[in-house]
Structures are given as structure tokens and as C-alpha cells.
Design a protein that fits this description.
The complex is a heterodimer of chains A (374) and B (264).
Chain A lengths: L2 E12 L2 E12 L3 E5 L6 H8 L7 E6 L2 E3 L5 H4 L2 E4 L11 H12 L5 H14 L15 H13 L5 E5 L7 H16 L3 E6 L2 H7 L2 E6 L2 E6 L9 E7 L2 H8 L5 E4 L39 H9 L19 E7 L5 H10 L4 E7 L3 H10 L6
Parallel strand pairs in A: 3-8, 3-9, 6-7, 7-8
Antiparallel strand pairs in A: 1-2, 1-4, 4-5, 9-10, 11-13, 11-14, 12-13
Chain B lengths: L1 H9 L2 H23 L10 H7 L3 H10 L3 H20 L1 H6 L5 H35 L4 E2 L5 E2 L1 H32 L3 H19 L31 H25 L5
Classes of the chains: A alpha/beta (374), B mainly alpha (264).
Chain lengths: 374, 264
């Protein structure tokens, strides 16, 4: 399979701050690719370099095998449709006139009738036909967003680059645009969508790249973004002994309840990470610990933590050395097995609770690794 | 690019407001002369001459608009041309369509020049109609006292209009360059008009008379000489100044836009 978009060591530095930092990205042709990252991660800067709007400080960007930079790759950009940040349009022109203008300005010698037919087509695709005659001045944010997507579709592009395309849309609009992008990808268009919403890319993308601080911190199918299994909170009177015991149980992986004791990355089922982007310990939130190598180390560190300092311990019963632990249960492992094992070993269990894993936490875990200053 | 730009301009209220204001100038001049005619035999400026012959009404209107209204128009159109697109965010969508950056700058300048030609044409046509209706169009007494035929006068009028348009287009090139440096259309407009005003201030200060040959505004009114039988100085030299300004500042605008990171 060929690659629709490729960056090699792509870097953009503003002052001394890298907005995009030696980014190596590959987007295979024909996929719906999610480009996930928090605000300020460098998504838009990357997109601007892919479209030849800004000069990279270092590295290169390629679209459909051709280098793109300001003044270069004009020919290949004809096969690309783009939405970059806000869907800016001429406010004093109607939606239709805006599209006609952009259609004409790129191909003044195209057949006028075909051009107008294409404008009608894309208006229908984004469900804007009824409002096409209104001036953009009077459009709602959602309508402007639709217009921006319509403009990106004008040239029937092979590659669609959309920067947060569902911004400002209502839930129904979001569903419609997702379905549209899915359909385009199924028809062979490469769709590259940036987003700061994990749920969004999880719901629609074939593949996801996660950007944080200008670096790719994770890449792969979206199912790999979430750690497998469920998380169980166990409150016991002897946490150190309980952890040691639980680490020996099949299908149970202790997680460190402690801020600053994680070594995420690389385990089975985890998302493959860039070699240069191993997350470093950071603020609140537990890191999933790989089932293999790091488990013992995690136990040791978890045991050394004063229970009162862990957020989970705040809700635990007072007295004794009672404290909460977190373990990950593989699919098919029941909480009662954990309980039975603990009780069987003479450890008092105060509470067992399944914890709902919030998507934001997964996301923060993914991008958090690059938080440390460098 | 030129055609679609003009298509955009005619759908913009601003264009028509400008046309209305510029067209009002000759109409007002003629109206003022009708209501308050100069005494017969008064010294021959264009206003007086216009009461004898309507052909001079557009000339008078050009002379009145050349120092400020036309530069203001140039500033509005050129100042907004690049900065306005950048501020609205529409510039990036043009460049990724893709429109080549050179095509963008040259197309924008061509559109500005076309609109300035239209602006001058509005002044001349309205002036000719109003002047003709009020005072008639006949053989033209020139400033030096000899007579020009009506046909010859019209030819000179067209030349005068083209000359005025060329002068203000040179200023528009300066405006386009300023526009390429900023994302504020109004800022670029003010700066461009500022260039014209500062030029005119420098033009009346004798201490800097060494600068005067290099000031655009020193040449803007020179079309008046077309209405002398033999122009005092060769017009080609002045067109050269306009051309030099245009080439230098259009070149600078191209350079800036080619190198620019489009982050708006």
C-alpha cells in the first residue's frame, strides 16, 4: 500500500519552542486516519506544513509521493482538499458563490457547467443546498463548518485533510459528517482528520496517530489505544502483602496507585510507541503497567507509597493500614476470584469496586508522557 | 484570478459605495458651478474653463480627486487585497486550492488596477455627462490660449485619465507591499494613505527638495499639462517613475508573499 501523507523528521520551531518536533508520520492511502492530540500539540502546524502553507524548520512533508513546501508541490495539491482551522469564507458572498469562486480560481479553464454541477454536488453532500443562496454572514457556525467541508470536497480530492471537521456541529451534524467521511474513505479517498477528542477518532477512524508536544506518542488501530480488561479498586488492610499476592494471580495485573510510579509503554496489547517518546512519570493518573517485565518494580514502588498520599486512599476506611489498590483484570477474570484469593490469604477486604475507565484518562495517559519539560 | 477577483468585487457593497463617492465628485463640481458661476473673464483654472466647456468638468474632477480621494481608493483596495484575505482566513484556502503565490499577488494587483481604472472611468464619464449637460461640449480653449478640437480634447482627456490611473496604481503597488506585511486590512489602508500624505507634506517642504523627484505625488497632477499645446516636460519620464515604483513594490510584495509562513 502506498502512503498518502508522509513526514520525515518534520520540525517547526517558533523561537526556541518546537511546535512540531521531528515528526515521522505515515498515512497509508485509502484509510480514515485520526490525528489525535490536545490543543497546542502541533496538529495544525503539521497540517499547514503538509499543505505547503508554512516552511518547515527541518525535515520534509510529502503528499502522494511528492514533496510539498511553500512554492513546491502545487501540482499535487490539486488532488488534496483541505479544511484548516476555521472554515473561513467571504462573508459578503453566498455559500454557493464562495464555492464557485474557489472552484474557478483553481481551474479557470475548466468547463463552467461541470464546475457548477460539482458545486451543487458538494452542497448536497454536506446538506447545505437549502442555505446555499444565503450570504455566509448569516450562517451559523455549523453551516460555516459544512461549507468548509464542501469546499474541501470541491476538487473531488484523493486526499482529504480536515482539521477538526466536527467543530461547531450539533450531534446530528457530527453523525452526518462522520458518515460522509466514512463513505469517502470506503470509496478510496484518504481522509486525514485531526481531533482533540479520543471518542471521535475511536468512533470513526481506521488508524490513529497521537501527537503530544509535537511528537508522535502512539500510533496504531484505535482499539489499541485503550488498555484491555477492566480496572478494579481493592481496599484492604495490608496493601503490601495484597499486592504481592495479587501479582501472582492469573489474569490480574497490579496497577500502581501512585502518581509518579508508572512505566507505561510496550506491553502486549499496548499501543506501539515511538522509540524516542517513552512517557516519563508525571502528575495524577495511573499508568497501565505492562503485564511482564515491569510488574515487580511496580509492586515495590507501590508498596513504598504512604497510603494517605494516594487519591484513592482518601475514601478508604480509617484505622489500621487500610489502603486502596488498583489492579487490572483481564477479560474473563471475575472480581470474586480476587476477593477469594485475598480472603483466603487472611487479608481483610474492605471494598471491591469496578472502576469505570474514563476516556479522558486514557487520553491523558497517552499524551501525558510528553508533558515533562525537555 | 483577475476575472474571479472582479466577480467578487462587484458583489461587494464597498465597491459600489466607492463608485458612488467618486462619481459624486464631478457631479458636485458641476452643480456648484451651475449654482454659483464664476464671474466672466476670471482667471482660467479648470473650474472656470468648465463653465465654458463641459470637457473640463472631468479634468477638474480628476484634479480634485488625485491628491486624496484616489489615493484613498488605492489604499482601500490594495491595503485590503492581501491582508484582508489573511485576516479573514481565506488566503490559506486559496493557496491550498492551490493558487500559486505569484499568481495570487499578481492577480490581486491586476484586480486593484482594474478597479482603479474603473474608478477613474467613473469620474471621467460622470464628469463628461454632467459637464456636457450643463455647459455643452465644444472646441476646447487650452490653458495657453490656443484651441483644441472636441475630438482632440477627448483623446487628451482619455490620456489624462490613464495617466491618473497609472499614478494611483503605483501607489497601489506600495499598498500591496504593505498589505503583504500584515494581517490587518485597515492598518495597511491607513499606512498606504499615510504614505501619500507624508509624500505630499514632504512635497511642500523646500528643505527636502532633493527628495521631490522621487515622490509619487509630485507627478500625480501632471496630466494637466496635456491641456497645454506642448507639454513642458516629457511625459515618458513621469511614467517611468510610476513604473519604477510599481516594479519595486510589486517585486517586494511577491518576495514577501513567497517567503511568508501563512499562519492566519
Amino acid at each position: 500500500m502506498t502512503d498518502a501523507l508522509v513526514t520525515r523528521g518534520l520540525t517547526k520551531t517558533y523561537g526556541s519552542v518546537p511546535a512540531v518536533d521531528h515528526l515521522d508520520l505515515r498515512v497509508p492511502a485509502g484509510l480514515l486516519y485520526g490525528f489525535l492530540g490536545p490543543n497546542g500539540a502541533g496538529k495544525t502546524t503539521t497540517i499547514r506544513m503538509l499543505l505547503g502553507l508554512i516552511h518547515p524548520t527541518a525535515g520534509s512533508a510529502e503528499v502522494l509521493g511528492q514533496a510539498v513546501a511553500p512554492g513546491r508541490g502545487t501540482a499535487v495539491l490539486r488532488r488534496v482538499g483541505a479544511l484548516v482551522e476555521e472554515p473561513a469564507a467571504y462573508r459578503y458572498l453566498s455559500g454557493r458563490r464562495n464555492l464557485e469562486y474557489y472552484a474557478k480560481v483553481a481551474g479557470p479553464r475548466d468547463d463552467a457547467r461541470r464546475r457548477l454541477a460539482r458545486v451543487d454536488e458538494v452542497l448536497a453532500l454536506v446538506d447545505l443546498t437549502a442555505a446555499a443562496g444565503k450570504r455566509v454572514r448569516a450562517y451559523s457556525q455549523g453551516m460555516r463548518q459544512r461549507l468548509g467541508i464542501a469546499r474541501a470536497l470541491l476538487g473531488a480530492p484523493d486526499v482529504l485533510v480536515l482539521d477538526e471537521p466536527t467543530n461547531g456541529l450539533d450531534p446530528q451534524g457530527i453523525a452526518e459528517i462522520r458518515a460522509l467521511l466514512r463513505r469517502l474513505a470506503d470509496d478510496g479517498t484518504t481522509v486525514f482528520v485531526s481531533s482533540h477528542l479520543l471518542a471521535e477518532v475511536e468512533a470513526m477512524c481506521d488508524r490513529v496517530g497521537v501527537l503530544a508536544h509535537g511528537r508522535l506518542v502512539a500510533e496504531g488501530p484505535p482499539s489499541n489505544l485503550r488498555p484491555a480488561g477492566t480496572r478494579l479498586r481493592v481496599t484492604v488492610d495490608d496493601p503490601a502483602r495484597a499486592l504481592a499476592l495479587l501479582a501472582t494471580l492469573p489474569g490480574v495485573t497490579p496497577e500502581t496507585p501512585d502518581p509518579g510510579a508508572g512505566t507505561a509503554g510496550g506491553g502486549p496489547g499496548a499501543v506501539p510507541r515511538e522509540p524516542g517518546a517513552v512517557p516519563v512519570p508525571r502528575g495524577p493518573g495511573a499508568h497501565p503497567v505492562p503485564a511482564g517485565a515491569a510488574a515487580n518494580g511496580a509492586v515495590a514502588r507501590a508498596g513504598a507509597v504512604a497510603p494517605a498520599s494516594t487519591p484513592a486512599a482518601a475514601g478508604a476506611p480509617r484505622g489500621g493500614r487500610s489502603a486502596a489498590l488498583r489492579v487490572r483484570l483481564a477479560d474473563g477474570t471475575a472480581p470474586r476470584a480476587v476477593n477469594a484469593a485475598l480472603v483466603g490469604a487472611g487479608i481483610a477486604v474492605d471494598e471491591l469496586a469496578l472502576e469505570h475507565e474514563r476516556l479522558e484518562d486514557v487520553f491523558l495517559d497517552l499524551v501525558g508522557g510528553a508533558d515533562a519539560p525537555r | 484570478m483577475l476575472r474571479v477577483e472582479l466577480g467578487k468585487a462587484v458583489r461587494r457593497w464597498r465597491t459600489w459605495v466607492l463608485a458612488l463617492v467618486l462619481g459624486a465628485v464631478p457631479a458636485l463640481i458641476v452643480l456648484a458651478l451651475l449654482l454659483n458661476p464664476p464671474p466672466p473673464g476670471a482667471a482660467g483654472d479648470f473650474f472656470t474653463l468648465a463653465t465654458n466647456n463641459g470637457v473640463f468638468a472631468p479634468v477638474a474632477a480628476l484634479a480634485v480627486t488625485a491628491p486624496f480621494l484616489l489615493p484613498l481608493t488605492a489604499g482601500l483596495l490594495a491595503g485590503d487585497a492581501i491582508a484582508g484575505e489573511a485576516a479573514a482566513g481565506t488566503l490559506r484556502y486559496l493557496l491550498v486550492r492551490p493558487v500559486r503565490r505569484e499568481t495570487f499577488v499578481l492577480g490581486k494587483y491586476a484586480a486593484v488596477v482594474a478597479l482603479l481604472l474603473a474608478a477613474v472611468a467613473v469620474i471621467v464619464v460622470v464628469g463628461l455627462i454632467a459637464g456636457g449637460l450643463a455647459f455643452g461640449l465644444g472646441p476646447v480653449p487650452s490653458l495657453s490660449g490656443t484651441t483644441l478640437s472636441a475630438g482632440d480634447a477627448i483623446v487628451r482627456l482619455v490620456l489624462a485619465a490613464l495617466y491618473a490611473a497609472a499614478g494611483v496604481s503605483a501607489l497601489a503597488a506600495v499598498g500591496l507591499f504593505i498589505s503583504s506585511l500584515t494581517e490587518s486590512g485597515p492598518g495597511a489602508t491607513v499606512a498606504t494613505v499615510g504614505v501619500a500624505i507624508v509624500g505630499q507634506i514632504l512635497g511642500v517642504i523646500d528643505a527636502v527638495d532633493f527628495l521631490h523627484p522621487f515622490l509619487l505625488n509630485e507627478y500625480w497632477l501632471a496630466f494637466i499639462e496635456l491641456f497645454r499645446p506642448r507639454p513642458a516636460r516629457p511625459a515618458a519620464g513621469r511614467a517611468g517613475v510610476f513604473g519604477a515604483y510599481t516594479a519595486v513594490f510589486l517585486g517586494l510584495a511577491l518576495l514577501v508573499v513567497r517567503r511568508r509562513d501563512v499562519v492566519s
